[in-house]
Design a protein that fits this description.
Length: 127
């Protein structure tokens, strides 16, 4: 067992990285033989900083060039609602009622169905 102890400490305060240094770290982390973990250890930088610098480099912000934000709103025109054709009702001889809605949905109910309940179901299905 060794009696030697090594203390590793960081420089107090925040480090200032130039754009060239950041780009060198990014090449080391994301280059052909790159590895983020190795770059973190080699340059004594956190992985969060590396990914932030990558995002900034991809957006142009790292070099001081900011892209204009894409418009967040789109023009909307409101028109009158389309008139839907009335549902077709077909009756069968065995007291079942078949209803085909304009959307292609078919509902078959017994002749004794509650009219209010059927109206609510059809209202929901035609939305």
């Amino acid at each position: 067992m060794s009696s030697r102890i090594e203390i590793v400490s960081r420089v107090s305060g925040r480090r200032r990285w130039t754009v060239e240094q950041k780009l060198a770290v990014l090449r080391d982390a994301f280059g052909p033989e790159g590895c983020v973990r190795t770059a973190c250890e080699r340059h004594d930088v956190g992985s969060g900083s590396i990914y932030t610098w990558r995002r900034q480099a991809m957006s142009g912000e790292l070099a001081g060039v900011r892209k204009l934000a894409e418009p967040a709103f789109a023009e909307v025109q409101i028109s009158e609602p389309l008139a839907l054709p009335a549902p077709q009702v077909a009756t069968r001889s065995d007291s079942a009622i078949g209803i085909e809605l304009p959307s292609g949905v078919r509902v078959t109910v017994d002749a004794t169905v509650d009219a209010d309940a059927l109206s609510r179901v059809i209202g929901i299905l035609t939305r």
